[in-house]
Each structure stands twice: as C-alpha cells, then as structure tokens.
UniProtKB/TrEMBL annotation:
One of its GO terms (biological process) is glutathione metabolic process. Residues 250-471 form the Hydantoinase A/oxoprolinase domain. It comes from the Eukaryota. Residues 10-230 form the Hydantoinase/oxoprolinase N-terminal domain. This is 13574_t:CDS:1. InterPro entries: Hydant_A_N, Hydantoinase_A, Oxoprolinase-like. One of its GO terms (cellular component) is cytosol. GO terms for molecular function: 5-oxoprolinase (ATP-hydrolyzing) activity. Pfam families: Hydant_A_N (PF05378), Hydantoinase_A (PF01968). It comes from Funneliformis caledonium. Coiled coil: none annotated.
Amino acid sequence: MSTEMQGGIRISIDRGGTFTDCIGSIPVPVSEEYPTGRKEIVIKLLSVDPQNYPDAPREGIRRILEIASGKPFSRNEPVDTSLIESIRMGTTVATNALLERKGEKCALLITKGFKDLLLIGNQSRPKIFDLAIHKPDVLYQRVIEIDERISLIGDGLNLPSELTNNISKDIFQGISGEYIKILKKPDLNKVKEDLQSLYNDGFRSIAICLIHSYTYPEHEQLLEKVALSIGFTHVSLSSSIMPMIKMVPRGTSSTADAYLTPCIHKYINGFISGFDENLKNKVKLEFMQSDGGLVPVNKFSGFKAILSGPAAGVVGYALTSYNKKENIPVIGFDMGGTNVSRYNGHYEHVFETTTAGVTIQAPQLDINTVAAGGGSCLFFRNGMFVVGPESAGAHPGPTCYRKNGPLTVTDANLILGRLIPDYFPKIFGINEDQPLDLEVTTQKFQELAKEINIFMHNNNNKQMSIDEIAYG
C-alpha cells in the first residue's frame, strides 16, 4: 500500500450565528486506518469571543494547523498558509445583516417617475384575510430620480414598417433582441451633482435600476462610471445583478446587493487580513452561495449569500444521506435558525424568496426557516412568559456560556436536562476549556422564580418550580 501523501490541508468552515465549526482534511500516508490518505480534525468554537480571538474561522484554521503540524501558531501573527490547499466557507454574515438591519447605508437611482416603485411593490397579498397588512420593507435610505427614458418600439421584436428602412441613431436592438428607442439620455452633469450630494451625506453604496435596462444596460453603466469617479465604493447595477424584464424584483435584488455586499466585503477583508500573502495567491478560497454552489472569494456577493450557511448543509446531507437505489426522499433539519429542507435526487430551487420582509429574485435552494434560536432571551412581563425577540447571540450568549449573559431558550433546555453538559463542547470560560455552567443558570432561574412566585401569590395562584418555569 502506498505511503505517499497527496495535496495540502483542505479546510471547510460553517460560520453560524453562535458557533463556528471547522473541519480540516489532513494528508497522511495511506494505511489501513486511513485508506483515503486523509484524516479529519474537527474544531468547534464560539463565533464571537473578543476576549480570546478577533475572528472565529481564522482561529479555527489556526488550531487545525497547530494540530496538523504539531507546531505553535501565534494568535498575534499572520497565519502561515503554506500547508493549506483550500478553504471553503458557508457564512451567515449576510443573513444576520439582513435580519438585524445592519447592512450598508445605501441609496437607489431609478428612472424619473418611478421613485416609489419599490415601496409600492407588486401589491401581492399573501394572507388575503389578514387585517394587519405590512408593506414589504425597502433597504435604501434615499432615492434619486434620473431623468432618462427608453421605450420599446412596436412589439419589441419587429420594427414597424415605417421604421424598417429609416432607422435613426436613437434606435437600437437590445441584448434581448428587442428594438428600443432612446427618448431621453441622462444629463451626466446633473447626475454628478446628485451623486456628489449623496457622497457628501455619507453614502458609499448605491443601487441603480432603470427601466428596460435588462435589454439596454448602457444608461446604467454610464451612471456607474460617474459614481465610481466620485468615490463610491460599491455600485449594484440591476442589469448585471438580475437582467430580467420585471423592474420591481430587479430593483429589490439590486438594492439588496448594495445593502449586503459591502458587509460581505468588510468581513472577507477582515478575515483575509489575518493571513500571509499566500492566501490570495496560492490558496483556493471559496464561499458557498444560496443556490448550493461554491464561488471564488472575489465573486461572492451579498444578495446571493443570504442562505450561504444553510445551503451548505443541504448539499452535505444530499451527498451523504440519500440512497439512489432506494430513491427515498430525505428531510434535512438544521437546528439553530431553524432550517428544514428536502432532497429527492435533485436540488429543489426557488427563484423568488422573501427573507426578513425583503423579496429577492435569485436562485436559492428551497429552505424553510423557523425562528427558534437558542439565544432568544426569556422574560416575565405583566404576568406573562415572553421569549424574544431580543437575542443573546454568541457574545455574551446564554447564561450557561459563562459570560454573564441573560437567560435564554438554551438555559431552559439545560435546566430541563435536554442539554447534557458532558456531551456539549467544553469551550467556555477564560481558558476556553469549561463546560456549560449549570450552577449559575440554576441560580438565575431561582431569582426569576422568586419574581414570578411573588406575582402568583399576589394573584392567589399556585407557586411554580424552576422546572415548570423553564418548561413554560
């Protein structure tokens, strides 16, 4: 049997909201124990732990390299990537930015007369008998109307007979094959003035959505050049992001990209900054997209990253759990968010989804999400048990994470015995080696029980144990 080792270390990472999981595939001599010539190292750590490290995926990679090489890698120096062949990552950075509305401040440039188009939306009523109708959210903070207009000629595909032999310089055949006429070109001096005003007010990201740009993108491209010359760091063109005929989904997708992509780039730049120069030049760095495909780091954009983490889980269980011969569909369950999906031999995609009130037109795996996070905080208010919407996140996290966090759903599950500390990763405390803290969690539940039972006594109701409170 060959003892030759193949390739370098391959690292796969799932950066979730609370925990980051890293798997390192290490090349070893082929043997009976390792017939594939590789062994796996698994690292689990908190996604946010500023007391111990600035970036969880980078810290996971550092620990994998230490175990694989048997040598120390300092946390205070750029990580040496000479042993690494590839890094693949699924991340919830874009998801969390959208859910928590912590994306980039952005503006929308749209054809004059359509200022409120995205605010109006498509007027759909998903719950037709709901008395409390909520309009879809918009992600931009300001709208600039661009005085430009192009129009389709005739039925678009065939020129009217009177124009067949008399095509003017303002008539073009677009990308889609349709004929268009330029009725008004944008005044670039006015555009520059408006964009400079945006820039002076602190905007650095813009989305551009002009009518019929799906077939004639030149006007959007002209505006992009002006914006970049002024200093805008990110410009999302609807004609590039989603070149489709419908203007509303084209506009919402481009604004989502302008809102989320700068956050993605900030995160990626922060991640890359902790490594040596070889990461950019020699290591294959890829990110998972919402459609289940991997993309090079320089092609990773915000509006295609909303389901980045969950999509990787779907691909993983599809490859490992589904049996082609039996042909029995598999249900995927990802406890956290919580995400549920199905695989029956092919990936099920949807092309329009609404996430956190924002409708986006992009291919995504069909994943249904239920808000059931373990970080949701527990309260007793006005005689009622309340869960969330506030979240403890990864930092400080639940009480049992030993960082003085509030009581959460995770703590309730610990009290009820659903979480067993011996089986849970021992990654808490100052030295990141302590188990979940049952003692402090019990103490906090006892304090909450006092408050609840005073209320119960005053209202002639029976006293409640901490088990009953945690279960409630």
